[in-house]
Write the structure tokens for this entry.
Amino acid sequence: MQQANINCPRCGAALVVQNTDNEAFKRVACPQCGTPLRVKFKKEEALSDGGATQLGNPQGPDMPQSAAMPMTAGCLMLSDKPPIPLHEGINTVGRHTPTSQATCQLPVSDQYLSRFHAIIEATRLPSGQFEVTIRNDRNKNATIVNGTVLQPGDIVVLTPGTVIQMGYTVMCYQA
């Protein structure tokens, strides 16, 4: 039986992923935080036991070398900072603080950027491409997309090069 013992890159949960359909990779969601993951397998080894994802406790040096990679749907680019990846599903964007639980924490000290400022949602279309949208979350200050202030209930589709301002922090979306 082929299986991969991995840790969720977002929450650190240990997962045991089983490959029952002899796939080159398997897409699963972390049962603890819901992060979509892609787990690589060697195609030539066939399995036959259901493919269920389970919480586990992988230990020891004989752990398979399979890698868990969240499916990225682009990134937020801030000047002179590393790109902030966006993953398939809901990405809560906010200021990095010790108490922030935002999934995309921006490494800035902008006090006008809320800890839960906006939600960027990436949905995979049947074509395999992503539709990426932004909406306000629990912010006290405006979210501005290409010069237009988002009003409550507004949802805007992001395209490569879209300029987003949250507080005084300006970033650019890239696919």
The two ends are 37 Å apart (CA to CA). Residues 94 and 115 are 4 Å apart (CA to CA).
